[in-house]
Amino acid sequence: MLPLVLLAPVSAFPAYFQANPLATLALVTIALALLIYGFAKYYALSALISRLAFTELINKPESVTTAKDKINSHFWLFFWLNVRIGCLLFLVYFGLAILGGIVAVILGAVLGSIFGQAGSLLSLIPLVLIILFGLTWFFSRWLIAEVPLAVEEGVNIRQSIARSWELSKNSAFRIQAIVLICFLVTVPLVLVTNFLPSIFLLRIEPNSPRYWIVYFISLITGLLGGALVLPFWQAIKAVLYYDLRSRREGLGLKLRDREV
User: Fold this and answer.
1) What per-residue confidence (pLDDT) applies to 6?
2) Which tens digits make up the pLDDT trace of 133-161?
3) Rounded CA gap, 173 and 129, in Å?
């Protein structure tokens, strides 16, 4: 919110800021720095929720203060981990789009010669399916990448991503199904807090005072919706991490042995 508030004068007084490029540059720089810090804080808080949920699962609960101290020791690592995951997913999307495009062109040539324009349209279906299933498959392999960094000792960004990849081996389709179910559970809340306020914007004249009031209200409701959904998703990640470690490394068996 704060970066947007800082940039609001640039939109409200364009003539002044066009005549004073140094003031524009200063505001944009400050807003960008605050935006990056905000994302870093968001990722650290997300990791904190996952750590607290995981310690509850292994019956070793931590206080918020203790968990926060450990998370804050890797504060910026969570930001750069998510940046790296975002870059990896972009590269995956780029590769899948090329692969799907090649398949669509070949199928389009074959089906187009048989069914005409309808065949060319049908050739786009494999393109969509390749991108959709391929991207969600890779996403499921890196879904819990932040959790090892949050709960394991001596793990860096590369090792945390590798742990997620290793633990989710042979479980990608199951994780995809869990993510789909969780997404469907959160859809009503997301629709009410994110998409419903945006519909009102379509009926208001852009850049009018009324438009910006409704825009900020929709932004606030969207943030509130995200804040309500975030603990749910981070707890799901902690449960998945616990389940995958139990299946692959016998985490639960070790705990029961200790109790005996």
Assistant:
1) 64
2) 999 999 999 999 999 999 998 899 999 99
3) 15
